[in-house]
Design goal:
With about 475 residues, this protein is mainly alpha-helical. It has helices at about 10-45, 55-80, 85-105, 115-150, 155-180, 205-215, 220-230, 235-240, 245-255, 260-275, 285-300, 305-315, 320-345, 350-370, 375-390, 395-405, 410-440, 445-465, 475-480, and strands at about 190, 195-200. The chain has 19 helices and two strands. A two-stranded antiparallel ribbon has the order 1-2. Helix 13 (about 320-345) packs antiparallel against helix 14 (about 350-370).
Length: about 475
């Protein structure tokens, strides 16, 4: 690779492309359930030793989020003690184990194809393992990119992680679509008290017995690739400097930034990391509060209610081919994520977050006002698209950018772990509350509530979030010391 006084761009890009595979797996793992959940539900409804109610299905569909909370909570400890690179290798292994186990939860021990409570428990354990990988990758991937990227393009490069998340979701929408092929997904009807019945069991037999297995198992390919390739990227120079490996840190910085710039950056890093390992609240409550609330608002605006339940939402709107609309929605999401990638360094973080929050509010309130009215079905779909697209150029990528760069070096590992753990906790709250809230209080209330939260998010950013465009990670120490 070319290397000169300005460093090697191709080397930097190759490192980032490997790291963002973690983001792709994040998106893949969280979205695979959208295509598999109906077949999975019908499969476990065939159990003889227990009744697979709506409660069990809701828990099974979101069990990976339990692992996400665990993985993100552990990310600070692992990233600080193992390093960023080895933490990502561990995440890749977790992804692979989960994909294999979710495809074949019988694990050559239980009888294949016989649904029962033991099999359900084992399946959920494998999904939790995958969630640990997602939680770990969600915290460490943007941290890794943020710590290795030059300050003038850091926002753009960290935004590629969100692009990879959305691309992973889009890929799995296509994969699920093609795996199902000419087969039909089971139609399941509620018969009250959490009980359900399968309406087309015979026609959907393949989807019930086999389809969902292939959907989960397909993740083994990107998971294996990620676990292998991450072994060949360097550790971040910030971490290397923190553990006293200055020579290695300088070599990595020189390959990325050039020799002269590397010495200057390393001096800045050492001026902050040699201060000591500081306590979490060294820079004040506001520093941690801003990071945590960025995470809370990213989920509280309700986006995962669309991402996880898209086929069911479009079906409830009355559209004939909800899976096709879900794929189209994924393409729109991908396009608007690119808006953030190419504007974050020009417009800054705060303007994108505020504009996106207001766009989401308009979309959410639009859904609240039109849902259930067949005369404005198209307007309701457009409102969903506006809501989703506004998130994709704002809170989707920019939240990760800010979490990766807003904390000082000496507390970054701990602070990111806490912020991302809150993100997954609120992800779980939104994901598990959406169906019961929309069923009992209506879509008008649910999306109206999301719209109000979007407005509050805009106010929060305007008043409390610092602009980090163009600042080095070492500048964050100075910024919070002044507060």
């Amino acid at each position: 690779m070319e290397q000169n006084d300005k460093g090697s761009k191709s080397y930097l890009i190759s490192i980032v492309m490997v790291a963002v595979l973690g983001g792709l797996l994040f998106g893949y793992d969280t979205a695979v359930i959208s295509g598999a959940e109906k077949g999975l539900q019908a499969f476990f409804m065939g159990a003889d030793d227990f009744v697979y109610t709506d409660f069990w299905h809701g828990f099974t569909s979101s069990s990976a989020l339990v692992g996400c909370i665990i993985g993100s909570a552990l990310s600070g400890v692992l990233a600080s003690n193992w390093g960023r690179k080895r933490s990502l290798i561990f995440a890749g292994v977790m992804f692979f184990i989960s994909a294999w186990g979710s495809m074949f939860p019988e694990s050559m021990v239980l009888a294949k194809g016989e649904p029962n409570m033991t099999l359900l428990i084992v399946f959920n354990i494998y999904r939790v393992i995958g969630g640990v990988g997602v939680g770990l990758a969600s915290a460490v991937c943007p941290m890794y990119i943020g710590e290795i990227a030059p300050s003038n393009i850091r926002g753009m490069l960290v935004s590629w992680n969100q692009f990879a998340i959305i691309f992973g979701q889009l890929v799995v929408y296509f994969v699920n679509f093609f795996i199902l092929g000419d087969h039909i997904a089971p139609a399941i009807q509620s018969i009250g008290n959490g009980m359900n019945e399968i309406l087309n069991g015979a026609e959907a037999a393949w989807a019930i017995e086999t389809g969902w297995r292939y959907m989960f198992g397909s993740e083994m390919i990107p998971a294996g690739l990620f676990a292998l390739l991450i072994c060949f990227v360097p550790e971040t120079p910030r971490y290397l400097a923190m553990v006293g490996q200055d020579d290695k840190a300088e070599r990595v910085l020189a390959r990325i930034n050039g020799a002269a710039k590397a010495k200057e950056i390393l001096d800045e890093i050492k001026n902050t990391v040699t201060e000591k390992k500081e306590k979490l609240m060294t820079y004040g409550f506001l520093c941690i509060f801003v990071g945590v609330m960025l995470s809370v608002f990213q989920q509280a605006v309700g986006i995962n209610a669309v991402l996880y339940y898209a086929p069911r939402i479009y079906e409830a709107m009355g559209f004939d081919n909800p899976m096709m609309l879900t794929v189209f929605n994924g393409i729109v999401n991908l396009g608007f994520t690119c808006v953030a990638i190419f504007t974050v360094e020009k417009l800054g973080r705060k303007p994108l977050l505020i504009i996106g929050s207001l766009g989401m509010a308009i979309g959410a309130i639009g859904v609240a006002c039109t849902f259930g009215n067949p005369d404005v079905q198209l307007l309701c779909m457009i409102s969903i698209m506006v809501y989703s697209a506004s998130f994709m150029f704002s809170w989707g990528p920019i939240c990760w950018v800010l979490i990766a760069e807003v904390f000082p070096n000496t507390i970054r590992g701990q602070a990111v772990a806490i912020a991302v753990a809150f993100q997954w906790i609120f992800n779980w709250i939104v994901s598990t509350s959406f169906v019961p809230m929309s069923n009992s209080l209506g879509f008008w209330f649910t999306y109206g509530l999301y719209g109000v939260i979007c407005i509050l998010a805009a106010l929060f950013v305007w008043r409390l979030v610092p602009e980090t465009k163009g600042k080095t990670l070492e500048d964050m120490t100075k910024l919070w010391k002044k507060q």
